[in-house]
Amino acid sequence: MSTTLVHFLTTDKLRLPGLLYEPKTPTKRAAIYLHGCGSSSVFYKPVMNLWGKQFTQKNIAFFPFNNRGAHLVKSLHQETGEAEAERILGGTYYERIAECVNDIDGAITFLRANGYNTFYLIGHSTGANKIVVYNQLSKQNPVSKYILLAGGDDTGLNYEMFGEKRFQAALKRAKQEIDRGNEMKIAPKYLYPEPYTYRSLYDVLNPDGDYNTFPFYEYLHKQRLSKKPLFDMYRNIEKPMLIVYGEQDEFCFNNVNGCVEALKKNTNPKSHTTFEIISDTGHGFDGKEEELGKMMTEWLS
After folding, report:
1. b (16+ CB within 10 A) / e for 264-293
2. pLDDT tens sequence across 52-70
């Protein structure tokens, strides 16, 4: 196995870093890994080396990269054709989930240039949500299979945490500020405890937005927050999927089985989907990383 630090351009010319694990025997297959939001970064996860070894042993290249939502706030370079790249702010507090299409398509373009032609998408946490969004919004989707790890309902979690009045107030204020041209300004702490920009805050909270791909709260509590059909984008997926949750996932409203059942009931019948729950672990699959890696590589093989 060889490991290389690489950089590539997204389709809107952001420069992103990644780790490319390649097997000794040349292969055309590559698995792209999408991390979650918050302070996530593939460069702080030792499990990347473990999974890189497991994937390459199955003759599949493994490509985790830091998307534009890595870290809470991150300065990124955007190529403009000028001698010096423009600096823009990225990270969780600035990202909108639909921008994942630019990141994923850029990763695929990079891998194609390096001889790969068969692609798999793996997404953990918000990365799983991004797979659903990518499947819906990508105009040219060359991915063969999806692996969704612990996809979550951030909209529902925020609603449960703040309650109806505070949730609706934050949602309304964020929309008003966006309409006033203030989308890149930081929302005040009394509105939301973390320093999200108004555009990113609205993206996360909006029940009818792209972020709300797994509306578990609405399904489990039989309480509608959105007007759109539940699991509408998820139900459009026709590609094969492996969906995995930890038995003790702390973001599943104390009902992992209920969340998995919701997905089973809303899975497109054209999709050959496998569901797994790994015992004695939570959202991050701590302590079960090797088991999960084996599960993923055997399913892809």
Report:
1. eebbeeeeebeeebbeebbbbbeebbeebb
2. 999 999 999 999 999 999 9
